[in-house]
């Protein structure tokens, strides 16, 4: 199962506000991890660009797992508050 399928399945049970929050966090994580990877790797060659892309991928995946976990915790807290 791909990450997008997992996110869409778990997001289907969330309120619309939490879905918007998840998409917003996804955009922030993607851009932020790209900037972090660029500063860390500073690619100057083809191999450097490949390294940058790999670091960006890893940082983005880690960030997405944290964002998804954060939204799941919020969803549980909102459901228990009802």
Name the quaternary structure: single chain
Uncertain parts: none
- Treating each run of at least 4 consecutive H or I residues as one helix, how many helices? 3
Number of domains as seen in the coordinates: 1
Binned strand content: under 5%
- Main beta-sheet annotation: none
Task: Give the SSE order as H and E letters.
Answer: HHH
The N- and C-terminal alpha carbons lie at a distance of 32 Å
Rg over CA atoms: 16 Å
Total beta strands: 0
Would you tell me the structural class of the helices and strands? mainly alpha
Q: How does the overall form come out from the CA principal axes?
A: rod-shaped
Helix content bin: over 70%
Q: Please state the average pLDDT score.
A: 84
Can you offer a commentary on this structure?
With 82 residues, the chain is mainly alpha-helical. It has three helices and no strands. It has one domain. Helix content is 87%, strand content 0%. α2 runs antiparallel to α3. The chain is rod-shaped, with a radius of gyration of 16 Å.
Please outline the helices and strands.
Blueprint: H1 3-11, H2 16-41, H3 46-81
Helix pairs in contact: 2-3
What features would you highlight for this structure?
82 residues; 3 helices; rod-shaped; mainly alpha; single chain
In a few lines, what is going on in this structure?
By secondary structure, this protein is mainly alpha-helical.
């Amino acid at each position: 199962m791909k990450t997008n399928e997992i996110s869409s399945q778990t997001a289907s049970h969330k309120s619309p506000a939490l879905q918007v929050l998840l998409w917003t966090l996804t955009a922030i994580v993607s851009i932020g991890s790209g900037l972090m990877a660029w500063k860390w790797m500073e690619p100057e060659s083809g191999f450097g660009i490949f390294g940058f892309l790999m670091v960006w991928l890893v940082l983005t995946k880690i960030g997405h797992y944290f964002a998804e976990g954060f939204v799941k915790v919020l969803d549980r807290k909102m459901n228990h508050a009802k």
